[in-house]
Design goal:
The protein has 266 residues and is of the alpha+beta class. The protein has helices at residues 3-11, 61-75, 95-103, 107-111, 178-184, 221-233, 254-262, and strands at 19-23, 34-38, 42-47, 55-59, 88-90, 117-120, 125-132, 137-145, 154-158, 164-166, 172-175, 189-192, 212-214, 239-241. Helices cover 25% and strands 25% of the residues. It has a 5-stranded antiparallel sheet with strand order 5-6-7-8-9, with helices on one face. Strands 10-12-11-13-14 form a 5-stranded mixed sheet, sandwiched between helices. The radius of gyration is 21 Å and the shape is globular. The chain binds zinc ion. Zinc ion is lined by residues 25, 27-28, 30, 33-34, 47, 49, 52, 54. Zinc ion binds at residues 25, 27-28, 30, 33-34, 47, 49, 52, 54.
Length: 266
């Protein structure tokens, strides 16, 4: 089979984005010899069986179509509501959690109710609750470990397709983590994608904004430009990269954020 034929078969498997799976080979039929690896804009496949030559990788436009198709299938799945575990306590019950909120400019967002923040006593994490904007119900949560033994540093509970959002401003900024989203939320709507790549599922939550800034942490500026160009090709207007020269956004207070994005004379 040539590359295009193989690609058609592999795309037909409907593997969602950002996945690595192992399965029976659709070409040689051997058991569990076939792997498929996807990201938001690529798909690769390989068969480990000695007699089989199935392998290939596809990046780019064609793959985006494939991702959109599998995304739409996912989209019609009913979104389950996330039940808060009993281990989630009010954030005031833990000093380290409060300290984290203060040190990372999340306290104001918490006090004003822009962010719903808890403390997970079981995992020793400060937990940012994620709401589904369509149903206004909890969809999941994102927890930041509060001691070095907690792994991974960030943990996602429940739904992983909805980004964490904080604030109700007309312009939004895409950031890496929840703390940065809270830090900006007095000035801009903060949207945390939990990492440096945008998931296909995130895009529909980015639509209602006038200007969409991308401001990943300063060590990921190149990724900010990649995301901005992905969004522009997906039809988003007015996407701008905000390069951070010194610190991540969570280390700035409201006045600095305002100056950084709008200048003093807003
Ligand atoms: Zn094979």
């Amino acid at each position: 089979m040539n590359f295009q034929q193989q690609l058609a078969v592999v795309e037909g498997l409907g593997v969602p984005p950002d996945t690595q799976i192992r399965m029976d080979c659709p070409f040689c039929q051997n058991k569990n010899t076939f792997t498929v690896t996807t990201t938001s804009n690529s798909i690769g496949w390989y068969c480990f069986h000695a007699s089989c030559s199935a392998k290939g990788k596809k990046n780019g436009e064609k793959t985006m179509e494939y991702v959109n198709v599998s995304f739409k299938k996912e989209d019609i799945k009913p979104q389950e509501e996330f039940k808060l575990p009993d281990s989630f306590k009010i954030v005031h019950s833990n000093d380290k959690a409060l300290q984290y909120l203060h040190e990372n400019n999340c306290w104001e967002a918490c006090m004003w109710g822009r962010a719903d923040i808890k403390y997970d006593v079981k995992q020793d994490r400060v937990v940012f609750l994620v709401k589904n904007p369509n149903t206004n119900k909890y969809a999941g949560a994102i927890g930041r470990g509060l001691n070095s033994k907690v792994y991974p540093k960030w943990y996602m509970y429940g739904n992983k397709d909805i980004p964490f959002k904080c604030g109700e401003c007309k312009d939004a900024v895409i950031v890496e983590d929840c703390a940065s989203a809270c830090a900006v939320s007095n000035i801009l709507t903060g949207i945390a994608i939990m990492g440096t790549s945008l998931k296909e599922s995130h895009k529909k939550y980015l639509e209602p904004y006038e200007t969409l800034y991308v401001a990943l942490d300063r060590d990921a500026t190149r990724k900010s430009y990649i995301i901005a160009s992905e969004l522009t090709s997906a039809g988003f207007k007015n996407v701008k990269v905000k390069v951070l020269h010194e610190y991540d956004l969570k280390y700035y207070g409201t006045p600095e954020i305002e100056e950084m994005f709008y200048g003093r004379s807003k």
